[in-house]
User: Fold this.
Amino acid sequence: MSNDMESDESPQETGDGVNNETPDAPPDGGGFPDENAVESPETDKPETDSLPDRREDPENRSIEELGSEVEVDAEVAEDVDEDDLLGGLQIDSTAEIDVPDRLVDQVIGQEHARDVVMKAAKQRRHVMMIGSPGTGKSMLAKAMSELLPKEELQDVLVYHNPDDGNNPKVRTVPAGKGDQIVDAHKEEARKRNQMRSFLMWIIIAIVLGYSLIIAGQILLGILAAGVIYLAFRYGSRGGDAMIPNLIVNNADTTTAPFEDATGAHAGALLGDVRHDPFQSGGMETPSHDRVEPGAIHKANKGVLFIDEINTLDIRSQQHLMTAIQEGEFSITGQSERSSGAMVQTEAVPTDFIMIAAGNLDAMENMHPALRSRIKGYGYEVYMDDTIEDTAEMRRKYTRFVAQEVSKDGRLPEYSAEAVEEVILESRRRAGRKGHLTLELRNLGGLVRVAGDIARAGDADFVTREHVLQAKGRSRSIEQQLADDYIERRKDYELQVSDGYQAGRVNGLAVMGEDSGIMLPVMAEVTPSQGPGEVIATGQLKEMAQEAVSNVSAIIKKFSDENKLLWQPQSFLRSKMSESINHSQ
Assistant:
């Protein structure tokens, strides 16, 4: 086809941020726009006067009004008793509590982390959150994506490069324009194929007519028609290379992107180029059609969340550093044995906010330079395990129960007494006086188990009895093993709980989080053939060995070391018992 014919059928793109001329109609043999036709997304921003008033629109509230500052929407008593487990809420069940629609409004506790996330969202800073599992790290990361502006999102297209097929061109356009460009190119390709097909059948008809009527060689005419058909079909494959590949499409995105790259391999994180088994002979797939975006590219203008950051291999962490530092990263094949390893695109935007998370051990295997970049361009936050037990927090814990019931969608509502029992369990799990636990994932498991028990009994509401039953059924594997071991030990135990017995005290052995067993600590004094010493059995650990040394010192304090061997056995027994009781 001539350039004149292509220019007549080039798609006319309209809309803000895309030229009305024909930058996307490539020249013959090419599939990329002129460099001068690449628009910057900043030119497509709406005027200030056209923006909605965020102070009046509840869907566009400022960041300061979000998160844990959102109060529980329920009736609260004027004079709140400090001992009221519901914090003064006057409700009969969780059905009377409205659950916020936004995830950021559902955050409970973690005041410091919430403030950091809000600052980071404003200033586009990276954040690393370290803390115990279930303290809300992933929830805060998702909440940040709701705080970022949607109007800055972009679509990313990859074009064929006629000068170097292994170096596809990349173009960014405002969100929603990518679909229009691709549809326009597809329509142009369809028209071209129709014209080629029409021309092909005309030529085939002429050849068949000439061979049949004039030359009288029908077999030769059929052979020539077949050659013409194959030639047209082979030539039409070049038109498909002119259709760009839309690798990032934010047309239907309602909030800033949130990409969870936890445990992602190199291709899923950094992008990849698929292998092409037909690499020549006109059967190959254009390189730009084989480009696949990574999580770092999909998270452009959004949030990239990586939990257990230390599980990423060093090579991926190094590439991640480059993407953070440069704000763009080329896509290439990740497998050395793949034909995609020869392909490398132009730089693709990676302007994301990274939220790295993990436990305390995550910092050990984390690349020091990657942590330095996060710290240098953002914040490090340690997640709280507990929070002070106040009336306000108890009200928010009540809302937490209502949120879990709403999220599950299959649980009965909780009665006020059942919520009180959940709050009591939260106090116990905190392990700290005057505090509530913030490991809400495990507490949410208790809420769901109690709801399942109530539903199995066709109860209208979850009651306190259901929560008490759930506490026994929602034990961890370790706790179940500990309880089973204790039950076995009870079959053979001989306990003395009354009176006084020299050389014996009862101790408590704690197993797991909630289990324990009473074990006797026995002591016996016998004459020694040499210097006196205390011998402890039972494969004692370092702390217990120190206790043995302390007991030895106490014995020597009450009796002379040289006379220790010659004291009456009854005297030694009494001293030994007194020493053990004193140390306990």
